[in-house]
């Protein structure tokens, strides 16, 4: 692809794109290849990462944390889940640093290889009965590698699409990386659901390992697609400038603190929804006697609905703006909190199906605009770092801790009432952060400072 230099503008208030590539269509061979790579790569990364979440709710408390009470085993299992989310901001910093220095594409390839190796290795870990506490240590170590990998994946996959998309379609292009999450979740859930059809003894012995080992094949497919993608022209133009990009992380924390705080807080909303309805709720309803296979199939249906909501909201955010669509999703989520908790409390597959479809649909409505919303907060020279740190920190605070917090709150006397109040308060804070931001859909990416 021939590089094109940015045309200077004498009037910074004019929003006309300064680069010809910002005028056009997503329906070109080049853009189709980019969007396919963004979607497929993210889907497989999230297949690996979210497969762990399902296994943490159904398997790990019985395989790696034996000898504990059911409540403590579930808490320990969710604790290892949180470790992966804790390491995601670290991955965002590491991959963001080198992505802003060396390029988006190289980091995308590296993150894919790391994730595939870690997930496949999880499927080979001996049980606690065989090697004792070393099993849990190996599990946690590989979970950290998973977290670092997915922490670097999202920023690159999102930016490789957003930075090459026409200006009026950036929100939809950026959402292809987000669409990978529900697609990967659907695939992971269905794979584990198929494994649960085995008798319980065989499922706990070896059946749960099959979806993890399948990762090796999926990652190979994604790498073949990803290696054909070209580097972002905006990054190539930045490389030609005498620009000091030695420490993008320090630049973000020194010069973009407000944008970082807004991006993190806004992102927490949809991740909290994910942690509550797809992780904590699964453990809750299965513990109350619901059929595991039925619960996982309902969860897969919810992820499918989330994918559709992500597409719709991404389209809308290019027309109406990122802030309006994000805020609408958050307000809808606040109104749905107590109905969702009531449905979960019934402990049946049909009730959980309604809860997870509603919750994931609202999550998707927030997820669609989120990539572009966060990316448009930061200038090109630190966009990979700033976007990754904001998004991955939000994932840690939202999805990483919400299942543990929910489990602890439900064990208290206040129970559902307190949990619902906390959940609504979190969503309200996220909505406030969105209102405090500046609309980015009309900004020229090359001019953001």
From TrEMBL:
InterPro entries: MFS, MFS_dom, MFS_trans_sf, Sugar_transporter_CS. Keywords: Cell membrane, Membrane, Transmembrane, Transmembrane helix, Transport. Residues 1-27 are annotated as: Disordered. The keyword Secreted does not apply. It is a multi-pass membrane protein. Residues 34-442 form the Major facilitator superfamily (MFS) profile domain. The chain crosses the membrane at residues 34-58, 64-86, 107-125, 131-151, 172-194, 206-225, 260-282, 294-313, 325-345, 351-377, 389-411, 417-438. It is found in: Cell membrane. Residues 1-13 have a biased composition (Polar residues). Its main location: membrane. Gene3D superfamilies: MFS general substrate transporter like domains. PANTHER family: SHIKIMATE TRANSPORTER (PTHR43045:SF1). This is MHS family MFS transporter. It comes from Corynebacterium lemuris. The lineage of its organism: Bacteria, Bacillati, Actinomycetota, Actinomycetes, Mycobacteriales.
């Amino acid at each position: 692809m021939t590089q094109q230099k940015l045309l200077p503008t004498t009037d910074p208030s004019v929003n006309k794109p300064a680069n010809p590539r910002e005028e056009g269509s997503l329906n070109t061979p080049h853009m189709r290849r980019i969007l396919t790579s963004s979607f497929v790569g993210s889907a497989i990364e999230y297949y690996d990462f979210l497969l762990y979440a399902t296994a943490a709710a159904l398997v790990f408390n019985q395989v790696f944390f034996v000898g504990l009470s059911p409540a403590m085993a579930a808490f320990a299992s969710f604790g290892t889940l949180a470790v992966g989310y804790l390491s995601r901001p670290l991955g965002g910093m590491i991959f963001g640093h080198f992505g802003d220095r060396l390029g988006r594409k190289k980091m995308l390839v590296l993150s894919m290889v790391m994730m595939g190796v870690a997930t496949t290795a999880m499927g080979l870990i001996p049980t606690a009965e065989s090697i004792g506490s070393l099993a849990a240590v190996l599990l946690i170590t590989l979970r950290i590698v998973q977290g670092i990998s997915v922490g670097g994946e999202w920023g690159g996959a999102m930016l490789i699409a957003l930075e090459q998309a026409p200006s009026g379609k950036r929100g939809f292009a950026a959402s292809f990386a987000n669409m990978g999450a529900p697609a990967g979740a659907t695939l992971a859930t269905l794979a584990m659901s198929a494994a649960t059809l085995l008798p319980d003894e065989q499922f706990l012995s070896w059946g749960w390992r099959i979806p993890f080992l399948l990762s090796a094949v999926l990652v190979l497919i994604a790498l073949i697609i990803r290696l054909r993608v070209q580097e972002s022209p905006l990054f190539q133009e930045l490389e030609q400038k005498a620009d000091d990009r030695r420490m993008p992380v320090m630049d973000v924390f020194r010069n973009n603190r407000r944008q970082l705080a807004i991006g993190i807080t806004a992102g927490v909303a949809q991740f909290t929804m994910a942690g509550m309805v797809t992780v904590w709720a699964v453990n809750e309803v299965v513990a109350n006697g619901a059929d595991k296979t039925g619960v996982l199939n309902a969860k897969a249906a919810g992820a499918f609905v989330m994918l559709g909501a992500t597409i719709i909201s991404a389209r809308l955010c290019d027309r109406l703006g990122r802030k309006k669509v994000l805020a609408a999703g958050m307000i809808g989520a606040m109104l749905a909190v107590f109905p969702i908790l009531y449905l979960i409390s019934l402990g049946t597959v049909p009730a959980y199906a309604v809860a997870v479809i509603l919750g994931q649909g609202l999550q998707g409505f927030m997820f669609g605009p989120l990539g572009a919303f966060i990316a448009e907060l930061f200038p090109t020279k630190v966009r990979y770092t700033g976007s990754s740190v904001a998004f991955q920190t939000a994932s840690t605070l939202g999805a990483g801790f919400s299942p543990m917090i929910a489990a602890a709150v439900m064990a208290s006397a206040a129970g559902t009432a307190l949990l619902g109040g906390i959940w609504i308060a979190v969503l309200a804070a996220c909505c406030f952060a969105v209102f405090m931001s500046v609309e980015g859909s009309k900004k020229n990416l090359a001019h953001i400072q």
